[in-house]
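Notes to self after the Tuesday call (sharing in case useful).
The group wants a holo model before anyone commits to mutagenesis around the pocket. I volunteered. Ligand is zinc ion. Logging inputs and output together so the record is complete.
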Amino acid sequence: MENCIFCKIISGKIPSKVVYEDEEVFAFHDINPIAPVHILIIPRKHISTINDIGPEHRDLMGRLALVSKELARQHNIDERGYRLVINCGEEGGQEVQHLHAHLLGGRPLGGVASN
Ligand code: AMP
Ligand code: ZN
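Result:
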């Protein structure tokens, strides 16, 4: 997707602090972290929102979850606890239209989905 900032990050046109990549999943530090650990985990393939996934993405979404929990372990927040968030659409607070999960941790995160 030409004008997608996260597609540009995956292709290296926009620099990022990469923390993980494989053939399907890419992860990098959020540019504006709201917690000591704030990593974005994204599919390489451009999917706009969680509304756009189908049964064909079951394996991909599973990999996203597996990579996320492994990154939580590597950043030593697995035992303390953390939050994995996928925002969707306008009222869900999604600003970048390329499906991504936020891995947030390293501080107490408060009540339901507050940041
Ligand atoms: P969302 O509001 O769920 O769409 O989250 C988008 C996230 O992308 C925000 O937390 C931004 O700080 C982050 N972000 C935007 N541009 C960049 C970038 N160039 N590199 C890293 N993170 C970014
Ligand atoms: Zn994209």
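Two things stood out.
The mean pLDDT is 96.
The domain at 5-105 is CATH 3.30.428.10 (HIT family, subunit A).
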